[in-house]
Amino acid sequence: MNDLQWNDTVKRLKEGLPVNEELKEQLRNSFMRNRKKKYLLRWTVIAAALLCLVMLNTVWQSEQSIPKVEAASLQLSNQFSLIEQLGKENSAGVAEYEGTIYFPLQEKGLYAYGNHGFHKLADGDIRFVRVSPNGKQLVYVQEGSLYLYEVDLKTNRLLLQGGKEQGFYETPSWSPDGTRIAFVKRMEFNEHDEENLPGLIAELDVKKGEIDYIAEGMYPSYVSGRNTLFFERNNKIISRNLNNGEETVLDAGKYPAVSNDGSYVAYVKSQGEPLLEDVWIADTNFKTKKQLTENQLAEAWDRQTGEMIEGKQQARYTFEQPTWSRDDRTLFVYKIFHTNEVWKKLMRFELTTAKPEPEDIVKGSIQALIYRDEDYAHSFFSYDPGYLKGTSPRQIGYKLIDSGKLDGETFVDAETYLSYADPYYQIIKTRYFLSDGPKGYRIDNMEEKVDIEISMWGEAIYKTVNGVREQQPLLELKDLPKKDKWTDEEICNIVYQESTETLWFTLKRKQDAVTALSLLSYDIEEKQFKEIDTFHEAQSSSMMIIDDEQKYVAIDMEINGNKDTVVYHLHRGQKTILSRQIQGIAPQAVHVRFWENGKLIFYTETEDRDVFFRFDPETNNIDTTMNTKKGGA
Q: Which of 49, 38, 48 is nearest to 14 (CA)?
């Protein structure tokens, strides 16, 4: 490399990096003192300078957000609904901050989902909320007015009074420094025709109370690091420079939502005929963009009569209000279904830079069924697999047992566990064949290898393999151990561990008018029972699941007339009643879902919605199932 090339390299590095002036002066003095050894030391000093610049760059970058990939390189790792599939979403305009999700529930109030429970923050018909950049304040919309809630002080105050005279305020958005709030003002309000009404975007200085009007549009969203606002106008995504007012049309679409670090914008875009809405993500400079969802055509419905229109198709669903989590790893989106009845689900899309492996695809498809989201489960297939979700029995767990190549085809072997309170337990061993395509790996075929059923026949429990019931029972009810003064009533739940030939089961017992639930295990080979414990508060149980290490069992029980979940340590004999661990609003019911990496995924029925949590039995800690790691996607 010649002198000119070196000089050009150093120049470009200096222009792109911050310079330590003190170090610069020291280097200059070093050059002067050693002028006589110029040629000998020149390359050494330049190399040292380059090393220092690289070190400075490393330090400087470590203080910034993690470098981002282009939007086109992002992948979806999960897209679960935050409610049971059979439930209906009653929130509008949620927001998230470091694992806590803020739910504005229409006609109910504002809630915080996280911090070990489900907490009510404010009453009223609240429709939209956003969190300040430091997480200490919430701005929300209540009946057309803007309110400010102080998270630490637990107080709120009116920011802007809305009404027919003043106008109605909507969809507030915090500036990156937390000093300003952009919002939309309308002089008329019709919740059934909101998108067709003109809005005026304005900006409120939170401390001074001053308002500046900016432009016509909807759904404003600030871009961090630039004095720029994105918004929607006439089904176009607009970028406006707040310094000079210059506007740029970026793409067709609506509901723009800029990530907190200013790297990406998520929005909803329509294409095709009939129109299909999907969620897209783009770099904020729109260098690249990517379609995240894959909408589908379905039979059209007449909304007036509630009947299907023969020969006509429509989009299966539409999307609304994408919203970023604080760490920009998760995107919340409302997914609206249009059938004989319009209803919506709040989806949680988790983003990653890593391309999902075949094992991730199979795992995701099974987890989607455990969450009872068959629509999501179908997205892992390259074909229509038909009906996948069972209600009785239903999927309660899984294990990946093998993967590799077979005759050039990629395969993954998995066990899926199903159960219900009959009692019944099932293990289905399936080989999944996958291929890699433009959208990543997809399941091309499933081949069921083994189907094991454990069920009650008459007065005994039998094992059935691939439809053939074994002649000898695993255990007979007459052999159950007796407990003094207690009468055996029925076996409620069964879990079968094939590798150890062990049965765990719950046994309902009665003494006079008192009912209790006993937990027992049975070694099939040794024909030995073990009384593990008795839950005297319980009247019955509807579901039981055991973690992979056979360390903890989670049992859905009826305790004093209430549906609850007990987590029991099989070695130490410790039990935890989950409803008593949840802070805030007491749940109406608690239900298990599945064990994942030693933690229990469960949900509660609270305020007429299903709220998912994750319980760590080692620490007795409850949190949301959000990914709360810091950093970007």
A: 49
